[in-house]
Design a protein that fits this description.
- With about 140 residues, the chain is of the alpha/beta class.
- The chain contains 6 helices and 5 strands.
- Strands 3-2-1-4-5 form a 5-stranded parallel sheet, sandwiched between helices.
- Strand 1, helix 1 and strand 2 form a beta-alpha-beta unit.
- It is globular and about 35 Å long.
- The mean pLDDT is about 95.
Length: about 140
């Protein structure tokens, strides 16, 4: 299974996702795409198979992914303090991959009905959803 992890800013969500995916799905092919080099580096250090940075890698790798996972802001233009371009959000939204989004209420986005969980608990839920999708 080809899993595309997308994150920006410091890459904390992506790093945690890659660590948990690697631990629970050791054979998964994990591609890390950061909106900046810091995020990409964090995900590579966490165990992604390969990584790239920027808008074009998001567009290209969405076409190859079975699953796209990251913070919910990756599907909202200009989120992550402007790091998600409208083209990125559109590419992610239109790709045929199954999307698993981690709820993060920041950058002027509020997700109603969101449970009051820690980021680690949200990551565990996201990885459980990836495992369920893989079956």
């Amino acid at each position: 299974m080809n899993i595309l992890v997308i994150d920006g800013q410091g890459g904390r969500v992506g790093k945690l996702l890659v660590e948990q995916i690697r631990q629970q799905l050791p054979d998964a092919d994990i591609t890390a795409v950061g909106t900046n080099v810091i995020a990409t580096s964090a995900m590579l250090k966490a165990g992604a198979n390969q990584g790239a940075t920027g808008e074009n890698p998001v567009i290209y790798n969405c076409q190859e992914a079975d699953v796209v996972v990251g913070p919910i802001g990756i599907v909202m233009a200009n989120s992550l303090l402007g790091e998600i371009t409208p083209v990125m959000a559109q590419a992610i939204g239109q790709c045929t991959a199954h999307k698993i989004l981690v709820p993060v209420s920041r950058c002027r986005h509020t997700i109603v009905g969101m449970q009051n969980l820690t980021m680690s608990e949200f990551i565990q839920l996201a990885v459980a959803e990836i495992k369920a999708y893989a079956r």
